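Hi support team,

I'm filing this because I wasn't sure whether my run with beta-D-glucopyranose finished correctly. The job status page said complete, but I'd like someone to confirm that the output block is well-formed before I use it downstream. Pasting the exact inputs I used:
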Amino acid sequence: MEYNMKNKFDKEFLWGVATAAAQIEGGYIQDGKGLNIWDAFSHIPGNIANNDNCDIACDSYNRLDEDIKLLKELGVNSYRFSTSWSRILPKGKGVINEKGLNYYKKLVDKLLENNIKPNLTMYHWDLPYELERMGGWLNRDTAKYFADYAEIIFKNFGDKVSFISTFNEPIAIYVGYALKAFAPGYGLEKYGRQACHNAMLAHGLAVEKFRKYNFKETKIGIVIDIWNRVPFDENNQDDIRLANDENEGAHKFFLNMILNGKYSDYMLQKMKKENTLPYFKKEDFEIMSKPIDFFGLNCYNRIIVSSENRNIKEDISKRGGNFLNNGQEFYPKAVYDAAKILREEFKLKIPLFVTENGTFSNEEKEINGIIEDIDRVNYIKGFIEWIEKANKDGFDIRGYYVWSLMDNFEWTAGYNFKFGLYQTNFKTLERKPKRSAKEYAKIIKNNN
Ligand code: BGC
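And here is everything the job wrote out:
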């Protein structure tokens, strides 16, 4: 497919890649870092594919210069990364680990030297283990500790980094407390809802603190993922009900808290009926919905749901749909649909950034000296096209970040799922560009 995107995005548009501390840094007990819940969870046999762990990951903690080089090679003008709470505060609160903090100072300085706008996320799933021992996100005090940690970030990085997000995909907290699938590994619906409530309270408390500083250059926001559920059969009431129920319990649960300052009537009733309603104080909702400056949208795909477990793939193929080699539907319009939900259903007016978008494969072959990942190339181009369409239709999407810079620790899938523009050799830790890295660099260049 010939792709000419010249002049379709303005000069201010941010082209980036995204990573997260626990997935790339390694150095898990280096220089005084405290453990986080993924360090602990990944050391329990059976939790992670192949019993992998994130002790070393991509070793980015020790390879800063090398990683900056990759960013330069790509030509990105922004880099989205996360700070590890327990690297900065080994016990989650109290004494700062200066060496840990310095790592991020160095990273930010190097990005600025290279004209790459830092986009910092304070929480990408790696709660300090010491706080988990005190109840983790089930403990309301954790919200307060988060706000204290946020304040350290504001003091050190305010007016240096362009963007600060409080949380990345807080649904992961639900997965960790309700579904056992993520750290810390609890399996109670009530826990899931309570943990998410407390986390969104933490978000609000951090936003409140941020406002005291009146930074000129730094904006604050949050990153939410939208995997919009659509009914397999639009005329089947059960399919419609199922799609609605899942949307309400996932992205809308968070959007209602942070944008509307409430639980939806649907969730309120459901949680009351199922006895999963979190403990809350009335004022929590006002705190959670403090205005933010930008919205980070993570968008990977839509999900088609069937109440009768129908063969979705066969049917979608018949309707002209496409699938990637990894079996996932190729539906780049998902990003347009998600932006529409935000604008129309939630009346979102602040600038939007697509803070993550990407696809995985299990194996990528080197052919004539280049790692071929043509599926990823087409996937990325497809999504960018729909972002462009969205902006033509009046949406305000100001940036796009590929997940991820390089193959990394993919949570419970360990090192099996590869999402990188660069291949990471987990034995030698060498990084190598894939076809997608070269193509993404071209896209960026053509737009500059
Ligand atoms: C997360 C990343 C993860 C990616 C791919 C996103 O939901 O923010 O941490 O690696 O999806 O699964």
